[in-house]
Specification:
alpha/beta; six-stranded mixed β-sheet; globular
Amino acid sequence: MTAIALTIAGSDSGGGAGIQADLKTFSALGVYGASVVTALTAQNTRTVVSVQPAGPAMIAAQMAAVFDDLDIGAIKLGMLGDTDAIRTVAEGLRGCDLPIVLDPVMVAKSGDTLLPDDAIGALRDLLLPRATLLTPNLPEAARLTGTATARTRDQRLDQAQALMGMGAQAVLMKGGHAEGPECLDLLVTPDGVVELTAPRHPTRNTHGTGCTLSAAIAAGMAQGLPLSDAVTAAHRYLQGAIAAADSLTVGHGHGPVHHFHAVWSHA
């Protein structure tokens, strides 16, 4: 049976993040990708020029069409844009018992805001409790918990526990925004903590890393992997995509990671 994953997220016209990154990731990992576009963005590797949310009716129609026909195995939620979109997606997921990976996209790599402050409460109240896995970076975890950005491992674990207290079944605290020669991600579940480490690669081409990681986890879960195995495999895939990012020449700002690093020939 064909493994199918669904991404519900915004479109990135530059191709490095959002729906485009998710579909590339699904394809690279052998999973068929379906999509629901929540917003259109005019952006490139340097900046986000404009954001236009999709209307609630269109988001609902896309979700209904996909669920009516495709045998979805897992769902990734990314950029949702505003409160109306969050409410519409939450309603469309009512009664859904599929694995859901929630990437709480709030700020683009360029620094542009992708989720206004007034929508954070809706995200926290309506979608976080539906998440099989929440994948915040350190600034996102701080905004969701209303605390300062974590500086230590213990502070990260405290925030993860707070987020699980809000309803998330598990939390992957990503360490990409921390400092030091090694990047530490913490997978926190009711059963304990799994540490995922990797060297920091000296590249500026990290556009779409969060989207790619969460999509890779959803791909693994669509293929039937347990959560911990899906996260470990996705972490390994992303590290390969980052390590190969400089072999691409895309744009003049923060370029994308190389989603097809294991497929394309570099001869």
